[in-house]
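Before any further analysis, we paired sequence with structure tokens, yielding the entry below:
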Amino acid sequence: MKKTVCDLTVTSNIQLNHDNYLLRLHADKKLGKIIPGQFVNILVPGSPGTFLRRPFSVFDVNYDENTLSVLVKTVGGGTHKLSLLEINQRVNAIFPLGNGFSLPQKQEKILLVGGGVGIAPMMIMAKESKEIGADVHILLGAQSRRDHILIDQFSELGSVYITTDDGSLGTKGFVTHHPVLNNNEGFNRVYCCGPDPMMKAVAKISKSHGTECEVSLENTMACGFGVCLCCVTKTKSGNKCVCTEGPVFNVKDLSWQI
């Protein structure tokens, strides 16, 4: 798939809660097809101390308006700088990068599991799966009520289930504590993104049910081309760069003890 390096124009930057921002970017040239799970590497403007580009899962795409959106959580200087971007500012980006999720078949029952900022690739995945005609279920986890975002938007695309670590919203506990994941409710496929321990636990439960499971790894991906080797992960066929061979992998191909 052809990669594009270009400047994108900020059309909106919406603060969703205390540390999450939804950044919408417009491309001058027609956007090519972006597969759910692929990512974009953004050069942080006006930040000499932020040498490396920052990778973000593509959150959503509007081909009619020629825009793509990314979810930015402020965790350091680079993401803080991006959270301050104003309308009409420009950022340089490389996209689409990596390999995405395998899309479901019509009428398949699927579960999308997002933990924390791991919900980022799930919006476009839910949207495209619904358009295919899949039966979409979405399990979202966060530390507390204040950390959950965009629940209403996800609810338009499928059945939504919520967990919080402190019990302030939905089921108390991790996503792995929710009955929809544990009770083997006939899912054909499970898709997951979030912290490694969470993904490994989801993968283990899916394996126990005989359900196909794909995960989007969140390794540090600085270059996006497999050159810097920051993101290497162990697989059953050797070490692979997450930025080029992933970030999405079928858990059967990973060297996870599950």
Q: What stands out?
A: The CA atoms of residues 232 and 240 lie 5 Å apart. Helices lie at 77-83, 122-132, 151-155, 179-182, 196-209, 242-245. The first strand starts at residue 4 and ends at 15. The chain has six helices and 15 strands.
